[in-house]
């Protein structure tokens, strides 16, 4: 007895992709999330779970403050008010049901925790860091690229790099021999990052072009990725594993509800037939 409309889809997830294929796929995903919520509400109601007046008033206040459900320039119409009341009530009931379903403490053995740490060792490590020095020649004249290349050809040592940087670089870092400090993956534009992480310590890159100008990089130090000790991560890992186990419990339960109530799900818009 619950209708899901295009407006519901829009309010569920307002950031829609631009391509038609991605848009259709995301609409199916959002619709399925809404269907899952309806199934959870249906089962919760069957088990006698209700939203009391205090819970409703608190949720209504939060909802009106954040305006998540209705964007309106004036008072709600009677129909909008009923829809809002129903939506808030369903949300409260579903949250209470999920808490009842998944809220019990989950015991995780030490062996399982250590196995999770070992199996994902590459994730539980500090990122590799590079210390980079930088020369920039801005694209402010027709011979900028030629000047950058001639400058690169003149560099054969750190002393050469420092001299070229202090005399020719258009980057403010020229005041400290071009030193940019330590950088991590994702902090430089892709072309510069690819070049930087391919260098050996003391090595100078070729000229790299970007919208900002022509760049010459020198790698002065490299700090390798280091595993984070298990003891430092143990509590975080335990919490993460517990969340994952609860997600599995909920996913399995929703799958069972799909089988139990599948015949009661009706897609009236043929554009969404692929959603199920």
How is this structure best described in words?
The chain is of the alpha+beta class and 276 residues long. The chain is 53% helix and 10% strand. It contains nine helices and four strands, in the order αααααβααβαββα. It has helices at residues 6-12, 20-46, 53-66, 78-102, 110-119, 144-153, 158-168, 190-198, 230-261; strands at residues 129-137, 179-183, 208-210, 213-223. Strands 2-1-4-3 form a four-stranded antiparallel β-sheet. A hairpin with a 2-residue loop joins β3 and β4 (213-223). The longest helix is centred in the last third of the chain and has 32 residues, at 230-261. The protein starts with 5 loop residues before the first helix and ends in a 15-residue tail after the last helix. The mean pLDDT is 89.
């Amino acid at each position: 007895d619950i209708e899901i409309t295009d407006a519901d889809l829009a309010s569920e997830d307002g950031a829609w992709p631009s391509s038609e294929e991605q848009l259709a796929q995301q609409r199916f995903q959002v619709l399925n999330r809404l269907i899952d919520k309806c199934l959870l509400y249906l089962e919760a109601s069957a088990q006698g779970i209700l939203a009391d007046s205090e819970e409703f008033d608190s949720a209504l206040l939060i909802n009106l403050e954040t305006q998540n459900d209705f964007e309106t320039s004036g008072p709600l119409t009677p129909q909008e008010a009923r829809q809002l009341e129903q939506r808030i009530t369903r949300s409260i009931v579903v949250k209470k049901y999920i808490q009842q379903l998944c809220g019990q403490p989950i015991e995780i053995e030490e062996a399982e925790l250590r196995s999770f740490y070992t199996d994902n060792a590459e994730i539980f490590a500090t990122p590799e860091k590079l210390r980079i020095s930088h020369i920039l020649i801005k694209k402010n004249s027709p011979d900028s690229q030629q000047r950058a290349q001639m400058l690169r050809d003149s560099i054969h040592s750190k002393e050469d790099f420092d001299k070229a940087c202090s005399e020719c670089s258009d980057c403010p870092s020229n005041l400290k021999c071009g030193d940019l400090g330590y950088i991590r993956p994702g902090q430089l534009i892709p072309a510069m990052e690819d070049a930087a992480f391919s260098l050996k310590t003391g090595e100078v890159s070729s000229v790299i072009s970007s919208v900002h100008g022509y760049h010459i990089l020198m790698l002065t130090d490299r700090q390798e990725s280091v595993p984070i000790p298990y003891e430092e991560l143990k509590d975080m890992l335990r919490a993460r594993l517990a969340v994952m186990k609860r997600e599995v419990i909920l996913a399995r339960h929703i799958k069972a509800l799909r089988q139990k109530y599948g015949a009661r799900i009706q897609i009236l818009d043929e554009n969404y037939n692929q959603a199920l």
